Amino acid sequence: MVTKWFRENAWAAVAVTLLRIYVGWQWIDAGWHKLTGGFTAKGFLQGAVAKPVADHATNEVLFPNYTYFIEHFALPNVKLIDVLIPLGEFLIGVGLIVGGLTVTAAFFGMLLNTLFLFAGTVSTNPWLLVLGFIVFTAGANAGRFGLDYYLLPLIRKGFAKIKHAITDKKHNGGTNGTPVAH
Asked: Transmembrane ranges (predicted)?
């Protein structure tokens, strides 16, 4: 009942709109500073490998697969990471602020926050993760007062056309509407 209200009510949409604009501003600001400030992730990634998140009692690394990923993929491809992180942060912020592909932007924001946490950076990541989860949970209602109001019906219409074309092809044997005798 609460989830239905949260995902459909206009007043909930207003509250989530204010929240998504705040979260979007945090992302766009972080991304913009990295895009314009000569950002490199190399030192951060090296630090995450040198001092991975570990259990305080046993000193055992808690996310060894993620540390392996950083060491063997992210660091050797740091130039790619240097582009993807700031651009991703900036685009997440834009999506949340304008309310376009809002759920997708919230998802990727939560994903980045989680990856930063796995690397050992707490900062504002837990807070933004929780706020992003609230926006994500609101679903389409999060973008009700944004571009999603116009985009989502167009996307649904496009997917319906694709589904219809696939169904027609499947039922007609792919022969331009002429049924195939078996």
From this structure: 90-120, 126-147
pTM of the predicted protein model? 0.86
Structure tokens belonging to residue 41: 């992730």
Domain borders along the chain are: 2-145, 147-182
**Tens digit of each residue's pLDDT (9 = 90 or more) over 127-141:** 999 999 999 999 999
CA–CA distance, 148 with 96 (Å, rounded to integer): 10
Contacts of 24 (CB under 8 A, 6+ apart): 92, 93, 94, 95, 96, 97, 105
Q: What is the phi/psi pair of residue 177, to 5°?
A: 90, -10
Q: Give percent above pLDDT 90 in the chain.
A: 88
Separation between Cα atoms, residue 74 and residue 45, nearest integer Å: 8
Q: Is residue 177 within 8 Å of residue 168, measured between CB atoms?
A: yes
